[in-house]
Amino acid sequence: MGKRKLNAKDQEKKKKAKQEQDLELSSGFFNSVNKPLHQDWENEEQDYELKPRSVKSVNVTEGLPIKRSDGKIERVVYEKTKKDEEPKEEEPEAKEVNEPEPEVEQEQEEEDEDAHLTPQERLFKIKEEIADLASKLMEDPEENYQCFTRLRKMSESKNIVTSQLAIMALIPVFKSLAPTYQIRPLTDAEKREKVSKEVARLRSFEQALVTNYILYVDNLAKLAKVSHSNSQNSKKVTPEQVKKGLLATKAACELCLSSLRHFNHRSEVFAIVIRRLNRKPTNADDLDAFSRCVRVLETLLKDDEENGDISHEVVRLLSKSIIDKKFRVDESVVNIFLSLSVLEDYDPNNNRDIPKKKITKKDRVHLSKKERKARKERKEIEEEMRKAEQALTVEEREKFQAQVLKMLLTLYLQILKAGTHTLDSTKNDASHLMAAVLEGLSRFGQMANLDLLGDFLEVLREIMTDIIQEHSILNDDDDEEVGGLYSGRQVRTVLLCIATSFTLLLNHASTGKLPMSIDLSKFISSLYGLLTDLSLDADLEFSHKSLRLADPLSQSEFDKPAVNVSTKSELLLRCLDFIFFRSKNGTVPRATSFTKRLHMSILHTPEKTSLATLKFIGKLTARYDNAIKGLWNTEERISGEGSYVLGIERLDREVELERSNSGAATLWENVLLDKHYCPMVRDGSRSLMKNSKGK
């Protein structure tokens, strides 16, 4: 009982003590500092907890506490600086308002630092820095890919020495590090997925490579726009900018000839080179850059024999540039297309409509559902691998070939139509590109479809007729002094029109795609009328590569032919071969008429042309035999069959070979050829006469 009473007393004491504590809390015990503590707390640290905390300065930030060696914990407080007080959100706004370019600021700082250095020391320092950046990229490109940005910014520097050195230094860097395929951008799903550190490093390097290469090419395109030709009348263009323009053009040529022609942004690199091919410049430096660009494009077309994608890109850009400039380009620019190697094995007439062999049900191999599924998956994997390797299939190559041929023939037709009525224009327009286009048509015209064949023949006939009518001695315009001999360029153009028309027609006839017979008698009679003027041409056997002195009495310079292959003598023999041996246009009246006219021409032509013509007449005699051999026999011509009409132009009608009565002609030119100064010509003439009397 005693213990229970003591417990009850203890409970009452505890209850009273609790009530007192509640009163003290309600009266603000913890707010009073000077009031003594009546609680018996075992830990002395409670005194520190009960003390109010005072902050001396508002601009204070609290750091992490420090624990001393004796176990005490010390509070760390830092004062805020003025930079920390400024709001961070206002920084980009301040940059937008007063943002002097960081590169300009960096250049100014570098100039201030190098102010005490001599020019040689500055140059040495720049070279050392560029070499250091390039060597770092070569040693470990994935680790030091930030050097790309620094080098590229140095190439955009206003200091011409720094800019030139950086531009040239980046060329071998890009050639060594860039792959021979295009790097595609990452998709959103690929960006979100987790990858290993090695893959992340590789992606960062590739992104830096592509980004800086694109900016580098854009800078080259901007610099290459300036040249001597387009800056003569501009006072704003400085000589340093002209030097940068030439350097940028050379850099673009180097990129085109390297493996970077398969890399990203290659169309822009090709455009830099093509943009310089406007007119043939007179300045020596610009002429060197012009010739370099022509050689680069020819090399690109020659080397792209297996794929065709580069040829397609170059032809598209070059043809668009020629049309935009309204054909005011040099003929060497059009001759670039003759280097196309991708069209050498292209035959659209034979490759079309090939019947596919249908597999019968008996020949099919039975596959289970599991095997068919595996085969389908294997095909998908092979297709993905082919796309990754960027390999072209046969169908894709043929598609490129068809598009290249379409663009090329369309351009040729537009040039011919634009230059038909401006043949004697002194401007550098489409008329100066006629010979180059005709040479291209004689090579690629055989691939044209039947729809374009009629257009080409009509345009060729108009070009030839305009030249012949303009130089006709029977021109009705008596006030103007016209007519007479043709110029070298006009003779060449007429011969190319004739050769090209026969080439176009014969290739379609040989493939069996020609549904009708086309009369080319207009071209044959034009060649017959041109023989007399052609024999008086002093440059018949010369090309622009021939070593010869210029004629001091000649008022005009020697015309450079469109292509440095065929002379006018070779073109003449090619046209004669087309008429009599490679087509069905050769008849007996035409053979006799041409034989008589060719003998008259031999009296004036040079030695080599005379020998070649005699050989052709011998070949013609062997084909038509007795029909031509009678021209050497005068006894059979006394029977009164009429007189031979020489074929001189008459007012009433044009020259008609069939009505010239060539059968009544006599080759009296043999008497003069028997006394020719060249012994080989004499022997050839005597041999023909001997063969004619042999039977």
Describe the overall structure:
- Strand 2 (66-67) and strand 3 (73-74) form a beta hairpin.
- The protein is mostly helical and 695 residues long.
- The strands form two sheets. A two-stranded antiparallel sheet has the order 1-4. A two-stranded antiparallel ribbon has the order 2-3.
- Among the domains are: 126-185 and 198-303; 336-345 and 391-543 and 558-577; 587-695, no CATH class.
- Helix content is 57%, strand content 1%.
- It starts with a helix and ends with a helix.
- The chain contains 28 helices and four strands.
- The model is unreliable at 28-39, 83-100, 351-356, 423-428 and 478-483 (pLDDT under 50).
What's the quick description here?
By secondary structure, this protein is mostly helical. It contains 28 helices and 4 strands.
Task: Label this structure with key terms.
coiled coil, Nucleolar complex-associated protein 3, two-stranded antiparallel ribbon, mainly alpha, 28 helices, two-stranded antiparallel sheet, CCAAT-binding_factor, Noc3_N, 695 residues, 1% strand
Q: Low-confidence parts, pLDDT < 50 over ≥5 residues?
A: 28-39, 83-100, 351-356, 423-428, 478-483
How would you classify the helix and strand content by structural class? mainly alpha
**How confident overall, as mean pLDDT?**
78
- Strand count: 4
What is the count of DSSP helices, taking H or I runs of 4+ residues? 28
Rg from alpha-carbon coordinates: 45 Å
Strands in their spatial order, largest beta sheet: 1-4
- The gross shape turns out to be elongated
Helix amount: 55-70%
Terminal Cα separation, in Å? Answer: 173 Å
As a percent range, the share of strand residues is under 5%
Largest sheet: 2 strands, antiparallel
